[in-house]
Amino acid sequence: MSTAELIQLRDSARQVLGEAGLAASESKTWPLVLELGWLLVAVPEELGGLGQGLAGACAFHEEFGRSLAAAPYLPAMLAIDAACAAGKADWVERFATRDFVTAPLADPALTLSDGKLGGTASAVPSADLAGHVLLCADDCVALVSLKQAGVEWRERPTWDATRRLFDLRLSGVELDPGLVLARGEAARALARRLAAQRDFALAADAVGGAAALLDSTVEYLRTRRQFGRPLALFQALKHRCADLKAQVAGAEALLAETLSRAGDDLASPAAERAGQAAKLQACAVYARVAEEALQLHGGIGMTAEHLCHLYLKRALLNEHLGRGGNRYDLDLAEALMAVP
Amino acid sequence: MTHTTTTGGNPEALRAEVRAWLQQNVPPGWRAAQTGTGQDMFVRSQRDWFTKLVKAGYATPHWSAEWPGGGRSLAEQKVIYEEVARADAPRLILFFVALYHAACTVMEWGSEAQKRQHLPGILEGRVWCQGFSEPNAGSDLASVRTRAERRGDVYVINGQKTWSTLAQFADRCLLLVRTDGSGAPQAGLTYLLLDMKTKGVTVRPIAQITGDDEFSEIFFDDVEVPLSDRVGEEGQGWAVAQSTLASERGLTLVELTQRMRYSLPRIAAIMRERGVADDPALRRELGRLIPKVDAACALADRYLLKRIEGTEAAGDASIVKLAYARTLREFTLLGQRIAGLQGQYREDFIRGGGMETGNWPFDFMNSYNWSIAGGSDEIQRNIIAERLLGMPREPKNWVLA
Q1: Do A246 and B326 touch (CB under 8 A)?
Q2: B124 is catalytic
Q3: Looking at the partner chain, which of A221, A254, A328 has a beta carbon nearest the beta carbon of B294?
Q4: What mean pLDDT is reported for chain A?
Q5: Quick one: B128-239 is in which CATH superfamily?
Q6: Best mutation site among B267, B273, B292 for testing chain A: the one with the most A CBs within 10 Å?
Q7: Which residue in the set A243, A281, A333 is minimally distant from B381, CB to CB?
Q8: Which fold has domain A3-100?
Q9: pLDDT, tens digit, for every residue of A131-142?
Q10: What is the pLDDT of residues A270-285, one digit of tens each?
Q11: What are the structural domain ranges in chain A?
Q12: Closest partner CB to B295 (pick from A235, A245, A250)
């Protein structure tokens, strides 16, 4: 598949999600995801996918960010990538067309002892609709059935209305050897690979959301008239929008550059740094655009019927997803400081 | 365009060649040698470096193929700039206007006689300066007021130019003058190639807040310029000036953003030097700066790729410049903050040392060059808002409320 074909596919996703409407529900968009084969974008061709890799996946994450669609596309893509990495061709087909497997969007706190899994995982999207969850613990990556004994889950309502997040509590959960994807060094590499992808996916979501929100904010300023002129005529507002535009363009360019810097070995330290840089910058820019957009909209932005708050809340949540401990900046600095 | 070069137009083969050459030829210790020196030393070292680069063919990759070193594609030119940044080679500041602005303007607009007269001289080291800005025409270039009156076969020039980089060393000046004040502001401009030794030309270096004097004012008192030194027709100056300004095509910002990225370890170095390498607050600031610097690089890179493909939009260049200027400001502010009181004791600066010399208060003050010159941040924001975001232009007529 060529770049031009990917762009075509991306455009068709934009159109489909656009027709579904802004922040379209999970029940409306998830069947579209399965039916249109969007989960196969990054899957290698030899496993029946479109072979577009992480860059292809990120083109779709951008569209989900842009449209605020509620389908749990990101965790499903992580589970499918893990199945690909473990060479489980039959799982890939199942996960991409029928059975939803979820995964935490934040690092879990799990331990594995005597073959039993215990601890917690938070920010697990749509766990009530998933058969399994993909978990990384110590030196093991495995799928765990959500119906298994010792697995409890509860929904945690979030400010972000475009995602449904669950907390999982595991105690003495027996691992099914048939569901283990990797152990030992292979598991640590797979966990790094998944963490990098999650960073890139969140960055792409943020880039899409920031671009869409800035567009609609500028459109509002062009239409809304006060003091006998369009608000877009006021230089104070133009300059703020121009600054946001430069930041969004920077986050977009950085995402593309870091994706190519990361290359194919997503478990490498270079890919880890690249993903961290993309995630930190894109999410910071998204939060900034959302903060400014609400102010630029004035009173209407404070109303629940307006779109501003949906983006704002997704932007705020995005900043806190990913690697835990608010360490993105510290980790990037450490990598630089480590070079003598 | 044909390639007369050894690498046959392959940018990556060229990269290896340039890298090897730079390893052999960048003057070792040039930063130390240019610290606390006068302009005479700086000019001498610039001449030496220029001569080396010209001989190697790396000063003129953007010239047409019949010139030594010329005929390089934009992709190859980019490689040369990236490698120059990587090698931390001196920037060719003294000759930039000659090699880009003057050469490209003469190649595009000059008569055959003008090409013969000026282009070989540039390769021999003739220095050019730019006479565009005036005290009342900075970012608003159309309001140039320096008058040129036609008397027989000469123009007689009266007025003043300012912010002319290294004009005190220039042999020639790209001079934008007003020949007609009656119509639209852009319409009455004419473009001249002035010999700086002409009677009535006075150059006065401007003492800058950094202690440097990179810029000069130029005064014109009944200066006579032959009609044969006009480029383009009378009244065509605006169009010619646009070619001048477009001549470097985004390469400078590829180089400067790369240099900024290669300079990040200078921040790490000052943190160690000041004993604050483990300060978590400073580490967070540094960690947030890193992807901003990367983003500025990615923007400059992407813009040049668009130029190569011919897909750039009006306003794209403004995004690159604004992002660079803002990031450079943050970069130098962080360095200055870390340097602390120690940084406030005045130390010698490195002449021609670039934007991140490690003399942090100097670098911070110097960073205003990029947020003011070449269209201030405010102008760039107007362009981005109007061209890229489709927001309305400023009304033409205004009255104070």
Answers
A1: yes
A2: no
A3: A254
A4: 96
A5: Butyryl-CoA Dehydrogenase, subunit A, domain 2 (2.40.110.10)
A6: B292
A7: A243
A8: Butyryl-Coa Dehydrogenase, subunit A; domain 1 (1.10.540)
A9: 999 999 989 999
A10: 999 999 999 999 999 9
A11: 3-100, 109-183, 186-338
A12: A250
Residue B331 and residue B293 in contact, taking contact as beta carbons nearer than 8 Å: yes
Which range is least confidently modeled, A2-11, B5-14, B35-44, B118-127?
Answer: B5-14
Contact B164, B215 (CB under 8 A): yes
CATH of domain A109-183: 2.40.110.10
On whether the CB atoms of residues B246 and B184 are closer than 8 A, the answer is: no
| Minimal CA separation from A277 to chain B, in Å | 5
Contact by Cβ (8 Å): B352, B42? yes
Give yes or no for residue B8 having a pLDDT over 80. Answer: no
Residue B77 has pLDDT above 50, yes or no: yes
Which tens digit of pLDDT belongs to each residue from B162-172?
999 999 999 99
Q: Name the helix (H) or strand (E) containing A86.
A: none
Residues paired with residue B156 on neighbouring β-strands, in sequence order: B149, B224
- Contact present, B34 and B350 (Cβ < 8 Å): yes
Quick one: which H or E segment has residue B155? strand B154-165
CB-CB contact of A77 with A126 (8 Å):
no
| CATH code matching the domain that covers B250-388, chosen among 1.20.140.10, 1.10.730.10, 1.10.10.10, 3.40.1000.70 | 1.20.140.10
Contact yes or no for B298 and A257 at CB 8 A:
yes
Q: Residue B346 has what pLDDT?
A: 95
CATH 2.40.110.10 segments of chain B: 128-239
Given a cut of 70, is residue A340 above it in pLDDT?
yes
Q: What is the pLDDT of residues A164-204, one digit of tens each?
A: 999 999 999 999 999 999 999 999 999 999 999 999 999 99
Contact B227, B53 (CB under 8 A): no
What is the per-residue pLDDT for A325?
Answer: 83
Pick the CATH number of A186-338 from 3.30.1360.30, 3.20.20.220, 2.40.10.220, 1.20.140.10: 1.20.140.10
